[in-house]
Amino acid sequence: MQIAGWGGVIVASTGFFLQNRLIENIRNTEHYKDALKTLRLNVGAVHYLGEPIKDKRIKLTDSENNNADETSARFCVPVTGPKDKGQLLLQLNNHTFQYYIRMFVGTSREKFFYHNTLLCLVKSLQNRNITVDLRDDSYVCGHLDTVDGFMNLSLSKAVYCDTRQNEFLFENFFIQSRNIRYVHIPEDISIIDNIKNEVHKENMKHTNPKPKKSRKATKALQQHMKTVAMLEK
């Protein structure tokens, strides 16, 4: 028994060691470092998370978000700051490397806005190209990367057009919600369907499956029901 116990400890330690080594190898890649550096320079991410932004341990056991094969790889890096937390999604294949920032709708106030305003509709437009009219009559076109619980928007590859029709290119562009006048909804989108799908998707994240009763608990419940049935006779 003692030998078997030590064997289990050695196997577990070896697995833990290999996991740590693999995670360190991922963190030492240039793609990982560049993505994290860009995240820390992103105005929107800094606004959401605060500074400093720190990366956390990748959960390799989460095979849905962390997986790799001969042609592609995908990793989900938890990131945190003094204000909030989020995820940095890394996707790599033979031809391209992409990364996305995904924020959580965390506080009760944010959840209220999400379910009681059209914030959920705007959030459903993530990873699409949109146009946003601003309150000073200027507008911005770009790829919508993130939407937080207060409808602050973070866009990439954006074009800002001022009131004199001068255009300016920005790699990243952050818009605070108080400056938004309109968010243009693409014509190919069904507003009702998008709202339903987005709310359903968000609710599914927070749905906790009922824990399965143990055999002992099931037997106790059956005995309890028998007792109740006898008392009712």
UniProtKB/TrEMBL annotation:
GO cellular-component terms in the record? cytoplasmic U snRNP body; nuclear body
The signal peptide here is none
Query: The Sm domain covers which part of the protein?
Result: 117-189
Molecular function (GO) terms for this protein are:
histone pre-mRNA DCP binding; U7 snRNA binding
* Single biological process term from Gene Ontology: mRNA 3'-end processing by stem-loop binding and cleavage
Question: What's the protein called, per UniProt?
Answer: Sm domain-containing protein
Species of origin reads: Danaus plexippus plexippus
Tell me the classification of the organism that encodes this protein: Eukaryota, Metazoa, Ecdysozoa, Arthropoda, Hexapoda
